[in-house]
Design a protein that fits this description.
mainly alpha; 2 domains; three-stranded antiparallel beta sheet; two-stranded antiparallel ribbon; 5 strands; globular
Length: about 300
């Protein structure tokens, strides 16, 4: 697995951030409703650690405890000038609030607002790849990455979810969710289970020929892999996670001159689903179905995936 190249100072700050977050916000495995202010997944913890360390290094501090609220606010105000998406700015504000206000969690930093130019650029961007674009990208990928692209494109998988694919009899969907019975309406194939954000287990469906090809990559014994700090038991010898995401973006830039990221494959799936195979339903029902198929359970987020 490719390693991130970081300075010794960054490594030290990341270690500090990990210890700090586990001490004050560690909640992995705990009930979310009873510990809403805690960090519940290793993926979320990893993201916090990296971004907090990056911010601390940019502020010129060697210890997290040296970051003051004024320093954090100044950093955020500077960040909004670098064409940063509003969602990213909000996340960075939340991370820094956890550092500087951990003793009084009622206090908040001011939320930086992305410029209107940034907002318009993001609003006008359709992150979905067309089938023709995907076909071009696949021609410039090695076979293992090409197959991962095909799986993500036809099922809406996240990059890391590719590493978590299991047979339907090897895992169960998360029982704390109310699942629609009409998921995958208009689709046919073989169902599998994947584990997504916040540990949500859900079903996905692959066309029969893709499922047969997947089974050719079945491991004799599951193996343990690590991706962005997450420990994953992998059942199939296929590409996924950070390495696949980086490879996909690189191939896209070589072929098209730009990249929407591997996450753009989820946009493609959502838009293909709404244009094909779901009929005689209200738009709200269609959006709810696609939301669950993507592992969102939030139709308002799915709206962004559906509209170019």
């Amino acid at each position: 697995m490719a390693q991130r190249i970081v300075s010794n100072l960054r490594k030290n700050l990341e270690n500090q951030a990990r210890r700090f977050l586990l001490k004050h916000y560690g909640g992995i495995g705990e009930n979310k409703t009873k510990a809403a202010d805690k960090i519940h997944s290793t993926t979320t913890l990893r993201k916090h650690v990296i971004d907090i360390a990056k911010a601390a290094e940019a502020m010129g501090v060697k210890r997290l405890k040296h970051i003051t609220p004024d320093m954090a606010q100044h950093y955020l105000n500077q960040r909004k000038e670098f064409n940063i998406a509003q969602g990213t700015l909000n996340n960075e504000r939340n991370y820094l609030e956890r550092v500087v206000f951990y003793k009084d969690r009622t206090k908040k930093l001011s939320s930086p607002i992305a410029t209107q130019r940034q907002k318009k650029a993001l609003k006008d961007t359709n992150r979905a790849y067309t089938k023709e674009q995907i076909d071009l990208i696949k021609k410039h990928q090695f076979p293992h990455n090409r197959f991962a692209t095909e799986l993500a494109y036809i099922s809406g998988l996240r990059a890391q979810e590719l590493l978590t694919i299991q047979r339907i009899n090897e895992a169960t969907v998360s029982p704390h969710r109310i699942w629609r019975d009409d998921r995958f309406v208009g689709l046919s194939g073989v169902k599998y289970i994947v584990c997504g954000k916040n540990g949500l287990y859900r079903e996905v469906i692959f066309p029969k020929e893709m499922a047969e090809k997947l089974e050719q990559h079945r491991l004799d014994e599951p193996r343990t892999v690590y991706d962005n700090g997450a420990k994953i038991q992998q059942f199939y010898n296929i590409a996924g996670g950070h390495n696949f995401s980086e490879s996909f973006s690189s191939a896209s830039k070589r072929v098209l001159g730009w990249s929407l990221g591997a996450h753009g494959l989820r946009f493609s799936y959502a838009q293909h689903r709404i244009d094909n195979g779901i009929t005689d339903m209200t738009y709200l029902d269609i959006k709810s179905i696609i939301s669950q198929e993507l592992g969102h359970f939030r139709p308002d987020i799915t709206e962004r995936y559906l509209k170019p």
